[in-house]
Structures are given as C-alpha cells and as structure tokens.
Amino acid sequence: MNRWQPHLSGLIAPVMTLACLVLGSWWMGLTILTVLVFYPLIDAMVGTSAQTDPLQEGRAHNVIVHLHGVMVPVIVIALLVRVSMDGLTGYVWLGVVSTGLATGASGIVAAHELGHRRLRSGSWWLARLDLLSVLYLHFTVEHNHTHHRHWARPVDPTSSPWGRNVYFHFLRTVPLQIRGAWGARPKDTGRSLLLEAGLLVGLFAVDPNILLAFVAQAGVAIYLVEFVNYLQHHGLTRGQEERPNATHAWESRHRWSRWTLLELPLHPSHHLKASTPYQRLDVHDTAPQLPYGYYVMFWIALIPPLFHRLMRSKAAV
Fold first, then answer.
1. What residue segments make up the domains of the chain, in order of their start?
2. Among 293, 280, 247, 260, which Cα is nearest to 11's?
3. I need a surface site. Which of 7, 42, 43, 62 has the fewest CB within 10 A?
C-alpha cells in the first residue's frame, strides 16, 4: 500500500454527507453516527504508529487535501438546497449537524493546511472559501500571525491552561481570536467580517430558514475547530522569552486520527516549522502524548473532570 492511500479515509465523511443530503430523509443522520460513534471505536481499535515518511513529496497528498477543500462549499450548497426543498424538518436538522461535522473536519484539514500556502495562490483562496463556508474567515490571519507566534503562551487565546473546560474555552476563544486577528491585520479582518455579514444578509433575504441552517452548521464546524485547538495545547505553557519546542504541543500517533485528519495530530512537528506540508510532518519523542486519538478525546473533553485527570496523568509521564 502506498503511503498516501490511508489518507483517503478522510474523504469518507464529506462524500457520505454529500450523498446523504442528496438522498434526504433519515439518511442525513448517517454522518453523525459514523463520525461520533464508529470513528471513536475505530480510533481506539486500530492503535498507534510512530511510522512516518517525512521526506515524501507525493502529488497524491496534494490532491487529497484539495479534495477536502472543494468538498466544503459543495456540501454547504447541498444542505441549503435541501433546506429550500424540505424546510427545517427533523430530518433536515440531522443534515445540518452532519454538514457541520463534515465541513468542520474537512475545513480543519483544508483551511489549516492550505492557509499556510503562498499568499493569494489558488490553494490559499480555496482555504478562504472553506472558511467563509463556516463563517470563520479570521482564522487564517489569527492562526498564521498570532497563534504561531504565541502558541502555548498565556496570551494565545487558542491555548488553554490546566483546569479550563472546553465549554468555557469555546465561549472565550472565538471573540479573542477575532480581536487578535484585528490587531494583527485590521484591514483584512474588517473585510472578512463585512463579507460574512453580507453573506448572512443575502441568505436571510433568500429564506430565513436557509440562514438558520447555514449558521447552525457553521456553529458545529467552529466547535470542532476550537475543540482541536483546545486539545492541542491544553495545560502546556512556555515563558515569554522561552523558545518553543516539541514539549509545548500535544501529539497523537493514533492511526485513524492521523489518516482521516491528514497528520494533523502530529501537531508539534507542524509548529516547529509551519511551512512543512502535512505529509512531511514527523513524530517527536519529547512531545507529550495524548491518551487517545482525537475522536475518543472529543467525548472525553465533554466530561471536564475526566478530561483533566487524564491529561494531567499523561503530562506527568
């Protein structure tokens, strides 16, 4: 098997979501069952691997990440068409959540990776389109110009200290990230906010139900993005003058998380050189290891006492 082939598994959720939105009815809930139930089970069963091939340059990897990027707006359009046909029925609400899970996962992969590509390149613009699809255009500015400068420092709004739960983190981090993006590039951030506002007004003019569905799927996607941020740096801090190293970000070597999220769980490697393409990320033995993969940790994070106990125990190893 070629090294790029397991990463095709990340396309299961977006392709399934698109197909189920076309089919309608109860099918629209299939992504919820797959991502939130089956994926954690698979993540726990297939185990971990430290194997990487950080020198590979395969063209196939580039195609895969761009497919993720293309799927995001296509899925959102499919959802809005479904809402225009059926209204906001119970089944359609399943489709809304499924869409948010798909656009969140693929959006994390594509916008995070492609947002580091050359400014105003085709890949960079695709990342911007994906972020617009989930009302998170400020992410590229904040992530590239604030987070990568201050990661694991108290001033970084995407890094969370010990004891902060994911619910409070979510409510706190979003406005602080917008403020950080404004501070870094006020003109770009202002344009982004105006564009998002214009999109919302336009959707409302077409149909308030379409606006509601769009905002709801964006909310689910944003929660996934910020859950990942919460997980990647929780409790790990460095001083203002301290040089960053692999101990300042959590790493996960769980195969299913790595395959479906295109090596995003190898986060220390990404931070040590942000321009490194995902297929060239490597493991770091000095990095703290998450107790489980991202899909299992999603559920554990919803129970703060359990999450904090597990994370502290792994940090002490």
1. 12-50+60-315
2. 260
3. 62
128-174 tens-digit pLDDT: 999 999 999 999 999 999 999 999 999 999 999 999 999 999 999 99
